[in-house]
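go over my protein:
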Amino acid sequence: MSEPLPPVIGLILSGGGARAAYQVGVLRAIAKMLPAKVANPFPIICGTSAGGINAASLASGSMHFRKSVCKLEYVWKKLSVEQVYHTDFRTMFRYFFHWLSPLLTGGLVRKNPRSFLDNEPLKGLLHELINFDGIQKSIDSGALRALSITVSGYNSGQSVSFFQSNNLPGWSRAQRIGANTRIDVHHLMATSAIPFVFPAVQIHREWFGDGSVRQVAPISPALHLGAQKVLVIGVSPAREAAQERLYASDYPSLAQVAGHLMNSVFIDGMEVDLERIARVNRTLSFVPEDIKALHEVALREVDILVISPSRPLEQLASRHTHHFPWTMRFVLRGLGALRRQGSVLASYLLFHRRYSRDLIELGYSDAMRRRDDIMRFLGYDPAASNSTEE
């Protein structure tokens, strides 16, 4: 009798702007834990926002997992703000004037502004980082089953997961669909288009923005694509208890409000989905297998492992805000983002190598502390010795 096939493992890389560098640290640790020439441990890779960029990069090099992680780490450790969005005075002033003039003229002189920042430089970075032809090569070789990139449709209001795979079907659920297509730079520009901050991207007939917006079930794309186990790499510490409500004498700054909205977009949906799956798993554990078969219960328990930061990332960001270009410091100071209460906003926008390196090191150390859990989850003996670090 043949041995059962190992479970299909999905990887979820959530959104979070510059915070996504934390995910690279976790992946670096996993690459070190596993044997040097191991195949890609994640046949299904799903990403949203900046996590989608990491996902596409990893997928394009799935035939050489460790090498792919090293390339991703190299780019993040050399990153500068100017590689993601323009910060020169002329561009910043033009965008500021574009926002101001419609307000002063009631929209009669200029069309409505699209975004606060111009992220055109990001296209060049994506082409440097990702070999899009490599995604299909990885699928054809068997190293990858599917890559999913989730975006948010501004016209339809739907959460759309564009995925690349040879023969997997799409899906349609309430306000979320899956569509099989070939992933390219437009999908990554769309999924990372943070509302108001970066411009939306038109794909076919619709305009799309950051995939974290209205993504009520971030884990579902991996399950639809056949994942039986899911590793989630988050960008915010787990909330184990309600925080104490302290008296605040000062009115919240614009940056503090914006940071609160950012957290709602990038974090809350994942936490709710994880809680929902935990409840479903617990309920199903009380139902005997024969009863499930008799009533043809379609639900199944899903083994999920979550790796998340051990400390708030805005604390790291507050130490590096002086690395913003002077134009951005000027704007962010006016919004209150350079103060401690407003550093959440800065933690999403600070695409700088010094901050990235701190995030990568934190992700690496957090994952290594969970080494035994990760090794067991991936089907390895935790007692096995570490492989030689790349």
